[in-house]
Write a structure and sequence with these properties.
mainly alpha
């Protein structure tokens, strides 16, 4: 994070160091500008990537284990024998022993193959008598009070009341700002400051390169920079407009859909697009900028571009 902050300061206030970056083309791993722009673009593109993964999760993330589909581990030993392991008891020699054998055989067969609950008359009769007792002993109001739906709604009402308590309930709220921050800027620690520094670095270096980049390397990268800025802006706009507040966010209001972190990022992107269009829009064809990209950038920059051009 500190390195991106330092780059943002250099790109803004230190012309001599900017020039040295533009001229350093023999460094191991490629020209210094190429390495800087690659890292900055990677940091900014991470916003779009995280938003896309949240809005369109992969099939692997959506898959859930269904009952009966759990794959067992491979058998490592010899399977157990299917036949009985105990010696067969001798045949009964009296009527009492015969009765005992038949009762035991019936009990074992019932335990090994119990009838389904729906077909068991004992279970059905028990449910019927319990339902009749509930109807006869309880009034309709009392039956409503002990119904599962009423218990759930009562519990939720108490929970929402608890969430409204300023100091006790706040840690348990999933606020809109907190969710936006974790989705767009990473978690557990937000990268918004580093992302804004990366945007400012690319903007300042690109605009300064018109006079200071003798090799013209930066101009070749302007199209990808402009497209990345526009795509990131559009992704953030879609996320903030489509994300639904969590039910625990009891104090959410529609005017809170763009928290401070989002506003700072969008402002940096608008400023960057306005500067790029102003400085490179006149020779878009020579550096590979398409007309549709220029139009999209102008639509985002809006009034800020008009003020800069004046």
């Amino acid at each position: 994070a500190f390195s991106f902050w330092e780059l943002a300061q250099i790109s803004k206030d230190y012309p001599s160091r900017r020039v040295s970056i533009f001229k350093d083309i023999d460094r191991s791993g490629g020209p210094t500008w190429s390495q800087i722009s690659s890292e900055c673009l990677k940091m900014i593109q991470g916003v779009t990537t995280r938003i896309s993964e949240h809005m369109h999760p992969s099939a692997g993330q959506q898959a859930s284990i269904q009952p009966g589909q759990v794959q067992s581990l491979p058998r490592m030993g010899i399977p157990p024998k299917e036949e009985p392991v105990f010696l067969k008891s001798p045949p009964p020699s009296s009527k009492l022993e015969l009765v005992e054998e038949r009762v035991g055989s019936f009990a074992r067969s019932y335990g090994n193959n119990p009838p389904p609950a729906n077909g068991n008359p004992i279970v059905q009769n028990s449910k019927y008598y319990l339902e009749q007792a509930r109807i006869k002993l309880l009034t309709p109001e009392q039956q409503e009070v002990i119904s599962p739906a009423h218990i759930r709604s009562t519990f939720k009402a108490y929970l929402i009341h608890f969430l409204h308590i300023p100091y006790l309930g706040y840690p348990f709220r999933q606020t809109f700002a907190r969710r936006i921050r974790s989705i767009a800027f990473g978690q557990p620690f937000s990268q918004v400051v580093t992302i804004v520094d990366a945007i400012d670095t690319l903007t300042n270096m690109a605009t300064a390169s018109i006079k200071e980049d003798d090799y013209g390397r930066v101009a070749k990268d302007v199209p990808i920079i402009l497209k990345t800025f526009a795509m990131t802006y559009q992704s953030l706009e879609r996320l903030t407009s489509s994300l639904q507040p969590h039910w625990t966010d009891v104090e959410f209001e529609e005017g809170q859909r763009q928290p401070e972190d989002v506003q700072a990022t969008l402002a940096a992107l608008r400023h960057g697009l306005a500067e790029l269009v102003k400085d490179f829009g006149g020779f878009a064809g020579e550096i590979g900028l398409e007309e549709k990209d220029i139009r999209a950038a102008r639509a985002i920059a809006g009034p800020q571009l008009e003020m800069i051009e004046k």
